[in-house]
Specification:
heterodimer, A: 182 residues, mainly alpha, Four Helix Bundle (Hemerythrin (Met), subunit A), 7 helices, 0% strand, globular, B: 102 residues, Helix Hairpins, elongated
Chain lengths: 182, 102
C-alpha cells in the first residue's frame, strides 16, 4: 500500500522534473530540475532495498556531478536563452518512442524466454551494504579496480583540460582585461 | 494496480529513457545535451536496481555502480573538453562543431 503510494508519487515527480530538464529554455532551471530528479530517483533505490545504491546516487550525482555542472556553468554564458533545433516534432517523438520500445523488447526477450537463476542470492539476515561489499570485493574486484583507475584518469584529464590558463578570464578579451587591470 | 511489480519499474524506466532521448534529439546546447545523457544513464539504473530486487540477485546493483562511475568520469572529461571549446569559440552550440564538414 505505502510502497504503491511512494512509487506513484516519486514516479510522477521524477517524470515531471526530467520533463522540465528537456523542455525548459533556461539552463539554470534545467540544472536545478536535474538535481531534484536525481534525488527523487534515489527514492526508488530505497524502495527497492538497495540502500547503498541510493546513498551512492545522492552522494555522487547531487554531490559530485551537480557540483561539477554548477562549476562548469560559471564558465558559460547561461543567462542567454537556449536556442533549440527547429525540426519536425512528430518525427522526433515517434523515433524516441520507437527506440525506447525497442530497448524494452531487447531487455525483455531473454528474461521472458529463460528462467533466470540468481547468481548471488541476497539473504535476509545481513544488510544490503554488507552484501554489496562481499560481492564487490570477490567477484567484481577487477572491474572495481578498473573503475578506480578510470576515475583517476578522468580526474587528471579534467584538471589538465579545464585548468590550463585558469588565471586568464575567458569572458573578457585580453586587451580589455589588461585595460581593466591597469 | 496497488501491487508494484517489476513491470511498473520497467515502464517507468522506459518513460524516463524516452524523455532523455527526446532531450538528446532536440537540444542544441551541448551542456543541456549532457543533462539529457544523465537522464538516459539514470533511467537504465532504475531498471538495473528493479531487476536486481525482483530476481534476488545482486549483479544488477553491481552494474548500476559501474554505470554511476562511468557517468562521473564522463562528466569530468566532457566538461573539461567543453570548457576548452568555449575558450576557443565563445559558444557551445552543436552546429558550431561542424567544422569537419566537407
Amino acid at each position: 500500500m505505502f510502497e504503491a503510494i511512494a512509487f506513484y508519487l516519486f514516479a510522477f515527480l521524477t517524470i515531471a522534473m526530467f520533463y522540465i530538464v528537456v523542455t525548459t529554455s533556461q539552463a539554470l532551471y534545467a540544472l536545478s530540475a536535474l538535481a531534484a530528479g536525481m534525488i527523487f530517483i534515489s527514492a526508488f533505490f530505497f524502495i527497492l532495498n538497495a540502500d547503498f545504491l541510493g546513498a551512492i546516487q545522492i552522494i555522487v550525482y547531487t554531490g559530485a556531478v551537480m557540483a561539477l555542472y554548477a562549476f562548469g556553468m560559471m564558465f558559460f554564458d547561461t543567462t542567454r536563452e537556449v536556442k533549440e533545433k527547429k525540426g519536425n516534432k512528430f518525427i522526433i517523438v515517434g523515433m524516441s518512442a520507437l527506440a525506447a520500445a525497442l530497448v524494452v523488447a531487447i531487455f525483455a526477450a531473454p528474461m521472458l524466454s529463460t528462467n533466470i537463476v540468481a547468481l548471488y542470492p541476497s539473504s535476509a539476515d545481513i544488510g544490503n551494504t554488507q552484501e554489496v561489499g562481499m560481492v564487490l570485493f570477490t567477484k567484481y574486484l577487477i572491474p572495481f579496480e578498473l573503475a578506480a583507475v578510470m576515475l583517476l584518469v578522468a580526474m587528471v584529464a579534467g584538471i589538465v583540460l579545464a585548468g590550463k590558463k585558469m588565471d586568464n578570464s575567458i569572458t573578457l578579451e585580453d586587451d580589455t582585461n589588461e585595460k581593466v587591470l591597469s | 494496480m496497488m501491487e508494484i511489480g517489476l513491470n511498473h519499474y520497467l515502464i517507468l524506466s522506459t518513460i524516463l529513457f524516452a524523455i532523455g532521448l527526446v532531450g538528446v534529439m532536440r537540444r542544441k546546447n551541448l551542456l543541456l545535451l549532457f543533462f539529457a545523457t544523465e537522464i538516459l544513464l539514470n533511467s537504465v539504473n532504475i531498471a538495473f536496481a528493479a531487476i536486481s530486487h525482483y530476481y534476488g540477485d545482486l549483479t544488477g546493483q553491481m552494474f548500476a555502480f559501474f554505470v554511476i562511475a562511468i557517468a562521473a568520469s564522463e562528466v569530468a572529461v566532457g566538461l573539461g573538453l567543453l570548457i576548452v571549446w568555449y575558450k576557443r569559440h565563445g559558444n557551445i552550440d552543436l552546429d558550431s562543431l561542424a567544422s569537419m564538414k566537407g
